[in-house]
């Protein structure tokens, strides 16, 4: 990796850390960058998941005020996220590399659709007043399924979790966003720990992403909500399409 490529990875980490805190699609920025600097798709995905863990934790800490009073939800839903993350990570390293290369473009398209429709989805969810405050078993299994997705790939995992919680929980969106940051952080954490032992990790990429994403997580928590969402989503769509092209032309 050249110096300029390293700088690009750090900058991508900053951007991803902020996006993950505010929107939840940072992988669509960092994954194409790792592909562009020469990492194979599975190695790029594994290293990306591990490198963004510090940023996810940073964003969760930045939203600590919105987490107050949600300890019960965290305790109930965290096992679902952790279990799902473990299963997703195992699927990533046990399925053939060709399966990942074939599946990921489809997952990216799904993630991009989720990112694009999130404003519409949020408007719909903001008018809900009759949802179960706990979400019940349906919420638990929804978070579990999102954890599997996050452990396997993770792009727009946060958007998926927000959509599930928004349908099933009657709560302010910012408080749900704080809870989302905790759940997705632990999915990335458990998947990342597993990857250390069972997968090939590009440690330089992990370090560069970690540095950038910690900074980005704090930026996202402090000022990210003031940035134009349309701009963020536009960039995400562009880099997502770039990732698809990169994968399909390898």
From TrEMBL:
The species this protein was found in: Lentzea albida
Highest taxon listed in the record's lineage: Bacteria
Compartmental location: Cell membrane
Protein family per UniProt: Belongs to the 4-toluene sulfonate uptake permease (TSUP) (TC 2.A.102) family.
Gene Ontology annotations for the cellular component aspect, listed alphabetically: plasma membrane
Keywords in alphabetical order: Cell membrane, Membrane, Transmembrane, Transmembrane helix, Transport
Protein name listed in UniProt: Probable membrane transporter protein
Topology term for the membrane: Multi-pass membrane protein
Broad class of the protein's primary localization: membrane
Cleaved signal peptide residues: none
Transmembrane regions listed in the UniProt entry: 6-39, 77-93, 99-117, 137-165, 185-209, 230-249
């Amino acid at each position: 990796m050249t110096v300029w490529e390293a700088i690009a990875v750090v900058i991508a980490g900053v951007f991803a850390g902020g996006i993950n805190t505010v929107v939840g699609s940072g992988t669509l920025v960092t994954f194409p960058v790792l592909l562009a600097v020469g990492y194979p798709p599975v190695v790029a995905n594994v290293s990306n998941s591990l490198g963004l863990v510090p940023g996810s934790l940073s964003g969760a800490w930045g939203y600590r005020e919105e987490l107050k009073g949600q300890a019960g939800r965290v305790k109930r839903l965290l096992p679902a996220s952790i279990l799902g993350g473990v299963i997703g990570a195992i699927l990533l390293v046990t399925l053939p590399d060709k399966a990942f290369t074939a599946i990921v473009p489809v997952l990216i398209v799904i993630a991009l659709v989720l990112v694009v429709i999130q404003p519409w989805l949020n408007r719909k969810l903001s008018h809900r007043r009759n949802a179960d405050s706990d979400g019940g078993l349906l919420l638990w299994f929804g978070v579990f399924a999102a954890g599997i997705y996050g452990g396997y790939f993770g792009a727009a995992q946060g958007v998926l979790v927000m959509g599930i919680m928004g349908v099933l929980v009657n709560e302010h969106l910012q408080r749900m966003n704080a809870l989302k940051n905790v759940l997705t952080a632990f999915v990335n954490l458990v998947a990342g720990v597993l990857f250390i032992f069972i997968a090939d990790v590009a440690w330089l990429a992990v370090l560069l992403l970690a540095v950038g994403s910690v900074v980005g997580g704090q930026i996202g928590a402090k000022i990210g909500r003031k940035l134009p969402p349309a701009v963020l989503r536009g960039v995400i769509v562009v880099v997502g399409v770039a990732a698809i092209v990169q994968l399909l032309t390898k």
